[in-house]
Amino acid sequence: MTYRSPHEKREQSLRLYHGALALLVVFVLVSLLDFPLLHALTRADEHGRIDRSFETEDWYSMLRIVGSLWTWIVLSLALLLLDRTLRRALPVLVSPLIAGLGAELLKLIFARERPVDGGVIQDGFYHFRVPFSGFIDGSNLGLPSSHTAVAFGGMTVLALMKPRLAPLCFLLALGCGLSRMLTGAHFASDVLLGAVVGILAARWIMSSESRSDRKYTFP
User: Fold this and answer.
1) What's the angle, vertex CA 127, arms to CA 121 and CA 131, rounded to 5?
2) For 41-52, how does the pLDDT look when each residue is reduced to its tens digit (9 = 90+)?
3) CB 128, CB 171: distance < 8 Å
4) CA atoms of 78 and 170, how far apart (whole Å)
């Protein structure tokens, strides 16, 4: 474990505090755009039923699967066969896995429903259940977006490994979040929090990996 002086510990705590405060402000600001963006990005009939015909389009499928854990399982296997070591394969698998599990856990705690229920935009404002009630009934919960968390968890690892790929990685991850908003499955704030969960998971995994300095090789 790296030694930190009391001054360095205070500086780190201060940075964490400022980062958390900035994140809270951004979350509030994005939340103010939730309903304008919901109605701007979705097409609904007079009954509020969402048009999801575009889900059969290739561009939508491509963006959606970026947030699928199966995508990262296949990619980690490809890296394993290519490198013959777990050095890159393991973080590429573990980061999106932890991000997805973290997002699912937060959904059960926050218990905020998706903007759409049964293909129809819900009336009124946000629909919250009792906090932690998701552990009893976890259906139709949306905060945060698990697909976005998985996408950012995997893409952030790739960006940290290969910085030149960072613009493409984050563009694809953002595209995954946007695809969830186009269907009415998530608010913008759901996507934002999912992205934060994914990025934090990736940075934690990569920092742990750099400290361990293990090879994970096999013949």
Assistant:
1) 150
2) 998 877 778 888
3) no
4) 21
Distance CA 131, CA 139 (A): 14
C-alpha Rg value of the chain to the nearest Å: 19
CA distances to 69, 111, 180, 182, 218 from 60, rounded to whole Å, are 17, 27, 10, 10, 38
Extract the tokens encoding 104: 């699912």
Domains of the chain and any CATH numbers:
33-212 (1.20.144)
> Is there a contact between 66 and 146 (Cβ–Cβ < 8 Å)?
no
Triad 193, 10, 200: Cα angle to 5° = 20
- Candidates 181, 146, 175, 173; CA nearest to 50 is 181
Helix and strand element counts for the chain (H, E):
8, 2
Whether the per-residue pLDDT at 88 is higher than 50: the answer is: yes
Q: Classify 178 as helix, strand or coil.
A: helix
pLDDT-based confidence at residue 216 (cuts at 50, 70, 90): very low
Q: What one-character-per-residue DSSP string does 75-105 give?
A: HHHHHHHHHSBHHHHHHHHHHHHHHHHHHHH
* Rounded Cα distance, 111 and 124, in Å: 17
Q: Can you state the percent helix, strand and coil of the chain, rounding each to 5?
A: 70, 5, 25
Residue 177: other Cβ atoms inside 10 A: 26
- Is this structure's pTM higher than 0.70? yes
pLDDT at 214 over 60: no
